[in-house]
Amino acid sequence: FSGLDPAQPYFQDTPIEVRLDKSDADFVDIIHTDSAPTIPNLGFGIRSAIGHIDFYPNGGEEMPGCDKNPVSQIVDIDGIWEGTREFVACNHLRSYKYYSDSIIYPDGFLGYPCASYNAFQAGDCFPCPAEGCPNMGHYADKFKDKITNDFLKLYLNTGEARDFPLWRYKVTVTLSGKSKVKGYVNVALYGSGGNTKQYQITKGTLKPDNTYTAYIDAEVNVGKLTKVKFLWNNNLINPTFPKLGAATITVEVGQDR
């Protein structure tokens, strides 16, 4: 049984007999997309972990893309009716959009077991454990026989619009050069499954021999890595023409470590 942002008003903290609970089926997976408190945030979705596995995409409260201009949501690509509903309950309705996207992407929407969304964002729960990460949505039941915890909370990020799945990578860059400069470092990944756009690894003071790490949520599963593109810029014309390179770049795939 898959719960798509089960309702919070009148159901939060109620007995299990009157709300969805993991005792209702052999395997219950939940997608929480609107779990901010109803008052004052108008959260429509239940916050508590109530299934065998509970996914909290983007932290489970505010979904990316839902804070865009209200007018653009009402005059929506899916028509006026869809746009009006989105305006009222965009976060709440993201759950079924993620679910429908998950059917098309069997390798997408990996949920990382973690204590909190902040810990997930900081990279504390990367990569996936040895038994792997479950996939949020249609293929969540592939994980049915691997559950050991009473409640398993899983975190991931999604895109702002279709297609929603993102794939998480840890990118570590050690710089080479003669002197420190101010600027930013970008990296793009190339692989058998496709190429990513450029992602910023760090900005500010760039010191040769220093190592910089970032977690990137890429819009494509690059598959087998074939090339990494390294770019840096100091955004201003420097008469000394400083040179900066990458001594090493390490890419770790969240999915298979």
From TrEMBL:
Main subcellular location: other
Gene3D superfamilies the record matches: alpha/beta hydrolase (3.40.50.1820), PLAT/LH2 domain (2.60.60.20)
Subcellular location: Cell projection, Neuron projection; Secreted; Zymogen granule membrane
Annotated PLAT domain residues: 167-257
Pathway(s) where this gene product acts: Glycerolipid metabolism; triacylglycerol degradation; Glycolipid metabolism
Reaction(s) catalysed (UniProt annotation): long chain 1,2-diacyl-3-O-[alpha-D-galactosyl-(1->6)-beta-D-galactosyl]-sn-glycerol + H2O = long chain acyl-3-O-[alpha-D-galactosyl-(1->6)-beta-D-galactosyl]-sn-glycerol + a fatty acid + H(+); di-(9Z)-octadecenoylglycerol + H2O = (9Z-octadecenoyl)-glycerol + (9Z)-octadecenoate + H(+); 1-(9Z-octadecenoyl)-glycerol + H2O = glycerol + (9Z)-octadecenoate + H(+); (9Z-octadecenoyl)-glycerol + H2O = glycerol + (9Z)-octadecenoate + H(+)
EC nos: 3.1.1.26
Membrane topology: Peripheral membrane protein
One function term, GO molecular function aspect: galactolipase activity
Domain of life: Eukaryota
Entry keyword set: Cell projection, Cytoplasmic vesicle, Disulfide bond, Hydrolase, Lipid degradation, Lipid metabolism, Secreted
GO cellular component: a single term: extracellular space
Gene Ontology biological-process entries: lipid catabolic process
Cited InterPro entries: AB_hydrolase_fold, Lipase, PLAT/LH2_dom, PLAT/LH2_dom_sf, TAG_lipase
Lipid metabolism recorded as keyword: yes
Alphabetized PANTHER family for the sequence: LIPASE, PANCREATIC LIPASE-RELATED PROTEIN 2
Record-stated family: Belongs to the AB hydrolase superfamily. Lipase family.
Protein name, as recorded: Pancreatic lipase-related protein 2
